[in-house]
Amino acid sequence: MVLRIAHRGASGYAPEDSLEAFRKAVKLKIDAVEFDVHHTKDGELVVMHDHNLKRTTDCLGSIHKCSLKELRKCHEPNGEPVPTLQEAIDILKGHCILKLDIKDNNIIEKVLKLIK
């Protein structure tokens, strides 16, 4: 069996790890979506590949040094803010397998509670 896995959402159609990319993956009926999970300075869970904001947003700095409120002011190329893990789950749950790359072992339990 071959699975169609969308890396960072349907990143060929929308900015990687954006809500738009996750909605597109659902529309394309992708089997699984892979994405990375980081935590903010105040412990909130967000979706982004890099820990640094520069490559994929209009902000500079590290996710881990920003509160969620500060991070929500950073926008991806399509104008969307950096998504929370909950927002990604709300779009994808029930439509595909979620393959999470958790970037900090200290947040594993928090992630597991959220995805159950």
UniProtKB/TrEMBL annotation:
Pfam families: GDPD
Any one Gene Ontology BP term: lipid metabolic process
Protein name stated in the entry: GP-PDE domain-containing protein
Residues of the signal peptide: none
GO molecular function, one term: phosphoric diester hydrolase activity
SUPFAM superfamilies xrefs: PLC-like phosphodiesterases
Domain GP-PDE: 2-116
